[in-house]
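[job 4417] fold queue: 2 targets
>>> target A
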Amino acid sequence: METDPVVIRIATDFSETPFGRYREDGPESGQVFREDLLVPALDKAGKVTLVLDGVDGLPSSFWEEVMGGLIRAGWTVEKLRRAIEIEVRDPALKVYDRIGWRHAEEAEKRSH
């Protein structure tokens, strides 16, 4: 029996202004998001829908640490694509869907 995906709305469940790569960069960093919110949700449900609407943007330091950090933690792009759906309706934020997957793909290429 497949469980429903956990829905994480970055703007309301984490921060409207995510920023920084590492935990020491502050509580709104990519490492904090990945380790404290995203990975536990993946462990619980196996599938996560990330809703990007409502954020002021996703700085590359934050977004690369989230997506690339999963690859560095042992995920593959193929497994991530089965586990994570990125949802975004705001036209100004749609580019972050593509950028997130590019970060994951580039991290995977560097890991070989």
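>>> target B
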Amino acid sequence: MQTEVIVVGAGPTGLMLANELTLAGIPVVVLEKQRTRSAQSRAGGLQPRTAEVLDLRGLLDPLLDRAIPRGEFGGHFAGLPVELDCRPWQTRHPYPVAIPQTRLEAFLEQRLVDQGVPVLREFEVSAIEQDSGGVTVGDIRGGYLVACDGGHSTVRKLLGVPFPGTAGTMASAVADLTLASRSDTVPSISEHFSQYFKSGNGFFTVLHPIEGGVYRFIFGKLGAERTDRQTPVTAAEVEEALQAVYGPETRLGELREASRFSDAARQVERYREGRVFFAGDAAHIHLPIGGQGVNLGVQDAVNLGWKLAAAVHGWAPEGLLDSYHTERYPVAARVLRTTRAQGVILNSDQNENVAAVRDMFTDLLRLPEANYFVSGLMSGLDTQYAGLGPRMIDLDLTTPDGPTRMSHLMHSGRGLLLSLDDTPRSIERWSDRVDHVTAKADGNTTSVLIRPDGYIAWSAADEQPLETALTRWFG
């Protein structure tokens, strides 16, 4: 089989990348070793910036039909009892969106299937060969390969790519379950995430309702030795943790799905190895707290997708593919640092000094300036790449065709020159890569060039000419 891009891994990162490439007209094949998708809820939602990114492609509205109803609660940092307020970041999506990872994957995979994109399950990658012209996996040949196959990436191991960082120090598990009976301390309604954190009798837990009587239960035993990740989570250990924290009247009903995780923090040193790229958990792993993993992966995919498409189409300027590493590596490195910090702050029961830090940090988060900083960090809304402007705000616009929004003009996955002033401009040389729309926006008259991933590459206030920015990013 001949294709242009081979994507290994049918998780959120790989599926989003395949959708981006398909939108750009690039043939792609997705390889997945699992026969079926995991039914476990896993990641519970989307951060505001990821919601914006999906909105740029017209994917958010249909996904909202699959969301779990919840109140308008802000995000959290280390489970501290202060809501993170993203409203000052001028986003249409200031609250995390409660879409379980399995529903996001099902939605993205179905879009690919509907468009005839091969998603080959039960495909075990056992060898990879690459040369100056492409990459071969089994009987599949492609120009490029992207490893989106998780924290234990087979691709990474086959290529001998180091994965430096710190090993896990805690033994934790997460389960989807029902309860046969419960005490009054078990939550029954949606609340801010901090209200679900409880500990007692040597256990720390997070128990919260998903829907239809199903709960998501995260638990660990303080000071316990780590259990091998592949060891099945048993009903007995789940019930022990439930009763230790929520009382003997809280009994397990059905243990539906469960898995283990740790606070290991690792990151590949380079996101590119010849014609092979790494994205999502194959490139970085960390403590799964605060909804960072899926969001990093989806944004890796949207950053890389249009650049790979440019290379395949033959118009990628020099250095464009390498900018994927340059831009995304620091973003994940910062997430690794912040999740390490959250892991320390969470574990306050064993250390009075940590408890004091936790109290002080709670007070800091109540300060608007500190809350603004941390909310931007956790949501991804503050992400800004070197040499670029910030993300483009989703403005309400009036165009010759009528009212619209900035995000609606980017459903094509192309760049966008948004002319908000009266200066005549021509971008004929780039018309197959960049859309040009003249519009009016209340209170905003600065024209901007927006990359396909939603970041400002040029504005009329810049000293550099528009043509310089167009050439730099669009060849």
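[job 4417] complete. Note on B: The mean pLDDT is 93.
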